[in-house]
Amino acid sequence: MIKGEDTFKKIIAHCKEYGFIFPSSEIYDGMSAVYDYGQNGAELKNNIKEYWWKSMVQYHENIVGLDSAIFMHPTVWKASGHVDAFNDPLIDNKDSKKRYRADVLIEDHLAKLEEKIEKEVEKASKRFGDSFDEKMFRETNPRVLANREKIQSVTRRFVSALEENRLADIKTLIEELEIACPVSGSRNWTDARQFNLMFSTQMGSVSEDASQVYLRPETAQGIFVNYLNVQKTGRMKLPFGIAQIGKAFRNEIVARQFIFRMREFEQMEMQFFVRPGQEKEWYDYWKKERMRWHLALGFPAGKFRFHDHDKLAHYANAAADIEFEFPFGFKELEGIHSRTDYDLMAHQKFSGKKLQYFDPETNESYVPYVVETSIGLDRMFLAIVSQAYTEEKLEDGSERVVMRIPPALAPVKVAVLPLIKKDGMPEKGREIFDQLKYDFNCHYEEKDAIGRRYRRQDAIGTPYCITIDHETLENGTVTIRERDSMAQDRIPAEKIPDVVRQRISLRPAGNVQV
Fold this sequence. Notes:
The chain contains 17 helices and 23 strands. It has helices at 3-17, 39-58, 74-80, 82-85, 102-128, 134-140, 142-163, 167-176, 220-224, 227-233, 279-295, 342-351, 377-388, 425-436, 450-460, 470-475, 496-504; strands at residues 21-23, 35-37, 63-66, 87-92, 99-101, 193-196, 200-203, 211-214, 240-249, 264-274, 304-308, 318-326, 329-340, 357-359, 364-366, 369-376, 389-393, 399-403, 414-418, 442-444, 464-468, 477-482, 488-492. With 514 residues, it is of the alpha+beta class. 31% of the residues are buried.
């Protein structure tokens, strides 16, 4: 078993043990690819939402928020192309009876070739040390070049077959690459076929009169059909954006890798409306801006990369993913797409309503172009806990598991811990807790030795622990312990809110004088 898989299993177990994520309906043996967020998971999830919402809406005067309904008129999905074209290629293994997305099987094969290249680079780096020229090695090493050529060749055939819906060619490619079923090891495949990903249901009080509606597969269409409402009521001028956080539902053929791919998930999307001809400029702007947002959390830049699309969706003239290195490899975290005027033009056609913008600068009316940023909230959650999970061996030989969650996003910001359960320390601890709880999500605990309590807080990612001891009762100072370094400082109790606020803030600020 490779290290990544082993770490991933530990992360999943840790998320359950410490109240981040539970299998849904677990007492009834659960449901495949459906999860519930526990007490700490719900807090982390809400903090991610707040970070995104403030960055998008509060910090931009030309972006506003929206909360559209999950149920929408079924013609919305006809206009958007989802009814006719929202499909994935499906293929079954005849021996294991397991069903797979054919494109994912090929993508996983390509990822293994990428891993071979990175292993060659890593071995050469160790062999040559400081004199290693990585760029030249990648451009000249025969094994690297051979694998790169394989990747490019397979990608060309794969993209072409997908674009032209040649399902037989996709199956042929899977057979030629000798891709085996992960369960049975068999290469005995059925023909590939298309599978629509939308969930449908009936709406109406009497079954005979009920009409078919869909659970939305994305949140973007709720923004497009409300574009004119927002523009007029908000007196918005181009360029402007509409942001939304909401649930979406896809009947995935294979939902896997924990919360990375689920049937019920949450999206954080922003559609930015621009003058035609300016979309590429804004597309480049939002690529840089969204990467800056991710890096502001303090994660290593090497954990992120851009992947420009070879195969563009039917609505796009440019598209890129921000990929994150999960324990199972680099995978899509966020998409930035130049959607042209496809969506608004389609809804204008199907609804018969004009969705044009009158531009006072050019004195003309036109349908705006759109640049989209779309990030999966659940994937962002998984990226954060994957990066945060750390196993450490300490100087005294003991070990600890610590979740190095960015302090601004941590579920609990401060833990208040009386050293012992007597001598007035619990009373003082409660007093401090009651003062802090209005500003921060806090935790109060007095059970067990202080070292064990520190470990429990480390395991849920609490950045600061406040310890009340005899000195607190004598001179009003407390010990503040920092999670990552385990460093401890004494500060006046009345300074706790200011110190914590400054340390957890993402905004640059001067040090608080204590």
